[in-house]
């Protein structure tokens, strides 16, 4: 995989996002439509894509590499959480402090990263990408959501949030199918393949739809938010590269994990802010700017893996 190929794929994704923005701007999609499509992709299409990526012959080497990637992802999250807490602890506004900390650590690796990995590396990319998704769900629904709540959720509640996530269920079922070499019938495999083909384009169109409606003339962010953008889009992905290199991860596993780690701020930061009954505007603007910047920073981070 060359940088030019990645740049071309990024441009294709940008065009799909532009198409989504155009569709929304012309009034063909309403807010409720976008919300329903988002739920369809997250709760139905994404788990199918993940499960389908495990439909391959069992290989101890693949399982070993996946384990190394998972260790790297977990260690990366621990480092990012500690660094973000230290950097933003002096931010006075509690809402901005929470958004800055969450936004710098947690990225949109499922909704943007998986489609990109699928487009670039096929099912192999998604296979190694599930480690990043597992890490995201593990930390986001424990440490992440805890920042936005007055009362810390119980351990039982945290486990419930993690394991009722359809993507986690798909990872567990897919891993079992991989280990025991359980293959789906041809008709089911074709069905899952068709869903996988549509997942990437539809995800980008929905992301584009969500970028419409903002007042782009009023994109004023406090200094802490700009630091968040630097950390999320560039610094933390570089840290992930170093950790992966130390563990000896190479090839598709390295490229996929780095691309997913370089994805923009996770959209769930808006949901958590809303649940905390705080102002969501900084979160929305942060997510939107981070998404646009990622069209430049993802290729940069990918290029660094070649050094």
Give me some keywords for this one.
mainly alpha; Na+/H+ antiporter like fold; globular; 12 helices; 307 residues; 78% helix
Summarize it.
Pfam families: Mem_trans. The chain is an all-alpha fold.
CATH architectural type: Up-down Bundle
Overall spatial form? globular
Q: How many angstroms separate the termini?
A: 14 Å
Secondary structural class: mainly alpha
Looking at CATH, which topology would you report?
Na+/H+ antiporter like fold
Number of domains: 1
Protein name: Transport protein
Subcellular location: Cell membrane
Family: Belongs to the auxin efflux carrier (TC 2.A.69) family.
Main location: membrane
Task: Give a written overview of the molecule.
With 307 residues, this protein is mostly helical. Helices cover 78% and strands 0% of the residues. It has one domain: Na+/H+ antiporter like fold (Up-down Bundle), CATH 1.20.1530.20. Helix 5 packs across helix 8. The longest helix has 38 residues. This is Transport protein. One of its GO terms (cellular component) is plasma membrane. One of its GO terms (biological process) is transmembrane transport. Belongs to the auxin efflux carrier (TC 2.A.69) family.
Layout: helices, strands, pairs:
Layout: H1 3-25, H2 31-53, H3 60-88, H4 94-105, H5 109-146, H6 155-163, H7 166-179, H8 186-210, H9 223-246, H10 251-261, H11 268-275, H12 281-304
Keywords: Cell membrane, Membrane, Transmembrane, Transmembrane helix, Transport
GO biological process, one term: transmembrane transport
Pfam families: Mem_trans
């Amino acid at each position: 995989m060359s940088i030019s190929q990645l740049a071309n794929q990024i441009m294709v994704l940008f065009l799909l996002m532009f198409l989504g923005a155009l569709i929304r701007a012309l009034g063909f999609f309403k807010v409720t439509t976008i919300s329903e499509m988002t739920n369809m992709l997250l709760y139905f299409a994404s788990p199918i894509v993940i499960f389908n990526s495990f439909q391959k012959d069992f290989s101890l080497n693949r399982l070993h590499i996946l384990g190394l990637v998972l260790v790297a992802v977990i260690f990366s999250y621990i480092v990012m959480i500690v660094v973000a807490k230290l950097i933003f602890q002096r931010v006075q506004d509690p809402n901005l402090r929470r958004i800055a900390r969450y936004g710098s650590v947690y990225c949109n690796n499922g909704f943007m990263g998986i489609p990109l990995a699928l487009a670039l590396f096929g099912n192999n990319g998604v296979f190694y990408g599930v480690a990043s998704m597992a890490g995201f769900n593990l930390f986001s629904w424990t440490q992440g959501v805890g920042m936005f709540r007055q009362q810390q959720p119980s351990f039982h509640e945290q486990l419930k949030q993690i394991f009722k996530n359809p993507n986690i269920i798909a990872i567990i079922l897919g891993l079992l199918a991989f280990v025991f070499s359980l293959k789906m019938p041809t008709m089911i495999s074709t069905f899952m393949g068709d869903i996988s083909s549509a997942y990437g384009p539809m995800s980008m169109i929905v992301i584009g739809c969500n970028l419409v409606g903002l007042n782009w003339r009023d994109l004023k962010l406090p200094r802490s938010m700009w630091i968040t953008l630097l950390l999320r889009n560039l610094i933390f992905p570089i840290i992930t590269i170093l950790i992966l290199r130390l563990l000896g991860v190479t090839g598709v596993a390295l490229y996929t994990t780095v691309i997913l780690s370089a994805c923009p701020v996770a959209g769930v930061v808006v949901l958590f802010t809303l649940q905390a009954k705080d102002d969501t505007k900084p979160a929305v603007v942060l997510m939107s700017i981070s998404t646009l910047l990622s069209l430049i920073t993802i290729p940069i981070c990918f290029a660094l893996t070649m050094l």
